[in-house]
Design a protein that fits this description.
Number of helices: 13
Order of helices and strands: HEEEHEHEHEHEHEHHEHHHEHH
Distance between the termini: 59 Å
Strand order of the largest sheet: 3-4-5-6-7-8-9-10
Radius of gyration: 20 Å
Strand content: 5-15%
Number of strands: 10
Largest sheet: 8 strands, parallel, barrel
Shape: globular
């Protein structure tokens, strides 16, 4: 039998550029850095640039592309663009990729286009597979908790989707500790491989530490993949000298507003940038490294608007250790109002 380590040594160079981590106790591995197709991959964005970003990511060892039914804008367009690129570029590499999608937030009009019902989840995944030109996704997530639908119904739908072969694993996103624990119990009873919770996490947003879900997932063997690691761009050098014309605030302020950049926040950003410089990193690189510092998160989801941003951030897995003094100073800066 061939030695796995020797096979790895003979692998294409792109896989030597990236670190890969097991997702909880599963056999699946995520790249330390994954690419999210939330912003800048929709119908309003440049298609050639989208294709080049995906090519750049894959060539750099990023094997996971993360989508959702309503990513765009407009809803569904990120998946549609991805489907075109699958046919044009990535079809021969399908088995080298982890492709994920989600349903839970609003997608279409009427009472059946959002939530956690069996009807919505099954229909949404069927639509997503058609848009992405795929037979299956590697992970299908319930995108958000739904208090109006029994959790048992939602989890049964995920289990049946996996059993049907339309997804290989089940995941949840934006689930708190209580509902993650309940979901785990239900899916264990259904013998469904539930392996990951996708949560927001950054130096500026420690919710998964405070609500206990990070610790619980580590103990339960569930992976965590972090989204919004750069706090919608605040943890970059983009806003150190003002608001540039091509920034998210200027172009699309649905999720980040000019009022978010308070005087105290700008002082925090500048102070964090000085620590990053001492580490030989950009602020964005340090913010990503910080998330991967303690093995509590198996992958960090980055967004991008140009290929160069992807290349800048892939090195973070190689420099994810922090001194005790650095951690204390980052905590001190973030505690200041």
């Amino acid at each position: 039998m061939a030695d796995i380590a020797n096979i790895y040594k003979a692998a294409p160079s792109r896989y030597k550029e990236m670190k890969y981590n097991h997702v909880g106790n599963s056999g699946l591995k995520f790249p330390a850095v994954s690419l999210g197709l939330w912003h800048n991959f929709g119908s309003k964005d440049n298609y050639d640039n989208i294709k080049q970003m995906l090519r750049t990511a894959f060539d750099a060892g990023i094997t996971q592309f993360d989508l959702a039914n309503n990513y765009g804008p407009v809803y569904g367009s990120a998946e549609s663009n991805f489907g075109k690129i699958m046919d044009e570029d990535f079809r021969p590499y399908r088995d080298e990729l982890v492709i994920t999608t989600k349903a839970g937030f609003d997608m279409w009009d009427g009472p059946y286009g959002y939530g956690g019902s069996r009807k919505y989840l099954v229909a949404s995944l069927d639509q997503s597979l058609k848009r992405m030109k795929l037979d299956y996704v590697d992970i299908f997530y319930h995108h958000c908790m739904d208090k109006e639908t029994p959790l048992e119904e939602t989890m049964q739908a995920l289990a049946d989707i996996v059993k049907s072969g339309k997804a290989l694993y089940a995941g949840v996103s934006n689930y708190d500790k209580e509902n993650t624990e309940k979901a785990l119990h239900i899916l264990k009873e259904l013998h469904c491989p539930f392996i990951v919770n996708q949560r927001k996490y950054s130096i500026f947003d420690r919710t998964i530490e405070n609500d206990g879900v990070k610790e619980f997932c580590q103990e339960a063997g569930i992976g965590i993949i972090a989204f919004s690691p750069l706090a919608q761009g605040m943890l970059t050098n983009k806003y150190l000298t003002g608001i540039p014309e091509d920034s998210r605030i200027a172009k699309d302020n649905r999720f980040l507003h000019e009022t978010d950049l308070t005087e105290s926040r700008l002082l925090q950003i500048a102070a964090l940038d000085r620590i990053a410089q001492k580490r030989g990193q950009t602020l964005a690189q340090m913010a990503l490294s910080w998330i991967l510092r303690d093995n509590g998160v198996c992958s960090v989801l980055i967004g991008a608007s140009k290929p160069g941003q992807i290349l800048e951030n892939i090195s973070v897995a190689e420099n994810s250790s922090f001194t005790e003094e650095e951690i204390k100073e980052i905590d001190r800066i973030c505690s200041q109002e």
